[in-house]
Design brief:
The protein is 45% helix and 23% strand. It has 21 helices and 24 strands. The strands form 5 sheets. Strands 13, 14, 15, 16, 17, 18 and 19 form a 7-stranded mixed β-sheet that branches. Strands 2-1-3-6-7 form a 5-stranded parallel β-sheet, sandwiched between helices. A hairpin with a 2-residue loop joins strand 16 and strand 17. The protein is elongated, with a radius of gyration of 47 Å.
Length: 650
């Protein structure tokens, strides 16, 4: 029973009819081969049949009258017919074997050794071999088309010698050399001498990496054109087989424009970093200028608290202190803006009284609302916890920003604050704050500008109401830092509702530390220190001197670094509190002078010098310590911090 495969069309070229019958009988014996056999008794007859019909295989007798089978194979080849040929001969001859191989004969069979299975296998082998050759040829043609038409430059190189064996037109254009100039050139001749060629590897190491890698290897390198000019390129290399030979295929892309763009990005980055440094320095200087008068306000208020005051005066003074400390907190937040932007801001996690905290803010802001003739109300839901754990300063800043904005843009009516708990899970609480005003409202278009740095809804608001445009942007980032979010609902002319959420922990009642200043008169004075204060601001001098004398210390003053050095030489001090920014000689230079004097006289233990400064940026602190200072305390200083600094001298 024959198989259902397509019939194999065979043409037998044989001048002996008896041999034709024998061959036919041999084929007939194999029931597994489905074939159609045609017979041509001469080369001419065969050529006529070939022009009319298509055959899968030729069986060619070696002796064809006065001619031979090679004559037929030669003529068929000239006609462009690619049908495989099997040569049939009466004797096994070495010379004939070699010639058959040279002529591309598919197989060579001796007639008296032919069996049905042998002839069947030979026919199938010849057809399959021709099919594979055709497939390979098709693949080669497709590869050649892709190779020649590729937009990227492609070079092929020998894996052993490194010699270029082929190049496509794009490579000719890139390197400004024709194919003949590239083929036969060693790959090293195409590389610039001032680059790493193969990612820092030698050619041999690079080839070994290719052999061990399942993926192409990509490197950036620099090639040379015909003029010797550098061309930055990205080269993707892999090993491919061509004609049974392993070669390196390098796909090369010109990255000159990309490199220019990267250089521009680096330049822009440097400019941005320079601008950031300038901004940081500006913030530091601004901090100093603002903190200097703040030091006077807070310090004098603290000292005033130690005097006899009636209840009304005490209440007003408390509001001054609360306002000043909240302003100081805002100054600190502005200085931390870069940290907020880079998500490096650290958050406190301490117990505090939420109700008392918000009520203090309301007391401060009611002065403003009273002046404008509008109501300021606070509403708490019954389930609000009194004590929570979180960052009170950051929470205050968000609340202050939103209520201040509401008051700023409300001319009549009211501002109402609602505080509620929206969820509680284990020890976590989600709080919701809502600030509703009856102000001017915000259009839909205007709402898109909110919560962006230095952005205000209307340009005239800056002129009329003031502000930097930072408040809402900082509030958004702070609420997100506390696992919350912020938003607004508003309609032009109908007021606004700003809301935000924060996640805090369930807290406990914090220890009542009491007022630092009110306890000044009750602090037990230990060892009295002789202290030199180097400070150019008269108010700050007075604040520091009165505070330290209240603590029982002996205080001497100097208004610049030069005088401080002179007084150091003339007197014995236990500690110097050194301002940094002063006329004539600043605190850093004065510290260096004092350390040089101590070194010159071989003083075994140097005097403690503490920077007392409004500059509290990290790089400033590092500079103070590097100059020879031992410690620093920020202005406006807290009494407990100052006491801790002085305790180190006892």
């Amino acid at each position: 029973m024959r198989t259902l495969e397509n019939s194999i069309k065979i043409l037998l070229i044989e001048d002996d009819e008896e041999d034709f019958i024998i061959t036919k009988d041999i084929l007939t014996e194999n029931k597994n081969i489905n074939y159609t056999l045609s017979w041509a008794s001469s080369i001419e007859n065969a050529l006529e049949m070939i022009q009319k019909n298509k055959y899968d295989v030729f069986l060619v007798d070696y002796i064809l009258g006065t001619r031979n089978g090679f004559d037929f194979i030669d003529k068929v080849s000239k006609l462009g017919v690619n049908t495989p040929s099997i040569l049939l001969t009466g004797m096994d001859n070495f010379e004939t074997d070699n010639k058959a191989l040279e002529q591309g004969v598919a197989d060579y069979l001796v007639k008296n050794e032919i069996t049905s299975s042998l002839l069947s296998r030979s026919i199938r082998y010849a057809i399959e071999r021709k099919r594979i050759e055709a497939t390979l040829k098709d693949r080669e043609e497709r590869f050649r088309n892709l190779f020649e038409g590729a937009p990227d430059a492609i070079l092929l190189a020998d894996t052993v010698t490194g010699i270029i064996i082929d190049a496509n037109p794009a490579a000719e254009n890139l390197l400004e050399r024709n194919k003949n100039q590239l083929i036969g050139t060693h790959q090293s001749k195409l590389h610039s001498i001032d680059n790493n060629k193969f990612g820092g590897l030698t050619f041999t190491e690079f080839v070994n990496n290719l052999k061990n890698s399942i993926n192409p290897i990509k490197v950036e390198t620099i090639l040379l054109n015909s003029k010797g000019e550098n061309i930055p390129v990205e080269m993707t290399s892999s090993l491919i087989i061509i004609d049974g030979r392993s070669v390196i295929q390098g796909i090369i892309r010109n990255i000159t424009e990309r490199k220019k763009f990267e250089a521009e990005l680096i330049k822009a980055k440097d400019i941005a970093e320079s601008a950031t440094k300038s901004k940081s320095r500006f913030l530091a200087n601004m901090s100093h200028e603002i903190r200097t008068p703040m030091n006077g306000i807070i310090g004098m208020a603290n000292i005033l608290k130690t005097t006899k005051l009636n209840s009304e005066q005490q209440d007003h003074l408390n509001l001054i202190s609360i306002s000043a400390n909240n302003l100081l907190a805002i100054i600190n937040d502005i200085l931390d803006l870069s940290k907020i932007e880079s998500d490096q801001l650290t958050m406190e996690n301490i117990d505090f009284d939420l109700i008392e905290n918000i009520n203090d803010i309301i007391k401060i802001l009611q002065i403003k609302t009273n002046e404008k003739g509008i109501d300021l109300k606070i509403n708490y839901t019954n389930n609000i916890p009194q004590f929570i754990k979180g960052d009170p300063v950051r929470l205050n800043q968000i609340i202050l920003n939103l209520i201040n904005n509401a008051i700023k843009f409300t001319e009549k009516g009211s501002v109402e604050v609602f505080v509620s708990k929206i969820s509680e899970n284990t020890n976590k609480i989600k709080l919701h704050f809502k600030i509703i005003d009856t102000g001017i409202g915000i259009s839909k278009e205007g709402q898109k500008k909110l919560f962006k740095e230095f952005s205000q809804v209307y340009s005239y608001t800056t002129r009329k109401h003031g502000g930097t445009g930072l408040g809402l942007a900082i509030s958004k980032k702070l609420s997100e830092k506390m696992n919350g979010e912020i938003g607004v609902e508003s309609e032009l002319g109908k007021g606004s509702t700003f809301w935000f959420t924060v996640e805090v922990e369930i807290g406990s009642s914090p220890e009542k530390l009491g007022s630092e200043i009110s306890e000044l008169n009750n602090i037990e004075v230990g060892k009295s220190l002789k202290i030199l204060i180097d400070e150019d601001n008269l108010i700050n001098q007075k604040v520091a001197k009165m505070t330290l004398e209240k603590l029982g210390h002996i205080v001497d003053l100097a208004e610049n670094g030069e005088i401080a050095v002179e007084k150091f030489l003339a007197n014995e001090y236990d500690i110097i509190l050194m301002d940094v920014q002063m006329p004539v000689m600043n605190g850093i230079d004065a510290t260096r002078q004092i350390r040089k004097i101590e070194e010159a006289i071989n003083k075994s233990k140097g005097i403690r010098i503490v920077a007392m400064t409004a500059n509290v940026m990290k790089q400033d602190k590092e500079e103070y310590l590097a100059s020879g200072m031992d410690d620093f305390v920020s202005k406006p200083f807290k009494i407990n911090e100052l006491i801790n600094i002085l305790e180190k001298n006892k």
